[in-house]
Known about the structure:
The protein is mainly alpha-helical and 70 residues long. It has helices at 3-27, 29-43; strands at residues 61-62, 65-66. It has one domain. Strand 1 and strand 2 (65-66) form a beta hairpin. Helix 1 (3-27) packs across helix 2 (29-43). The chain is extended and about 50 Å long.
Amino acid sequence: MPRSVLRELQEHARQIEEIIATLEELADKEGIRRIKSSLKQYEQGEYVVVEDPKQLDSMVSFDGEPATIE
């Protein structure tokens, strides 16, 4: 089987996995609660956009210690 066909099959499988994960989240009451809460935070401007995950180090802490993202 040509590699291009395998790559295409892998991409479609990844897309199907994303769809299944979304459906699972929507089927879960706690998932719906998280989505609604996140949308409310977004609408109220209670979010931060970062370009580089390393910027999160200065924003996130666990047990009073800065987080380290590698």
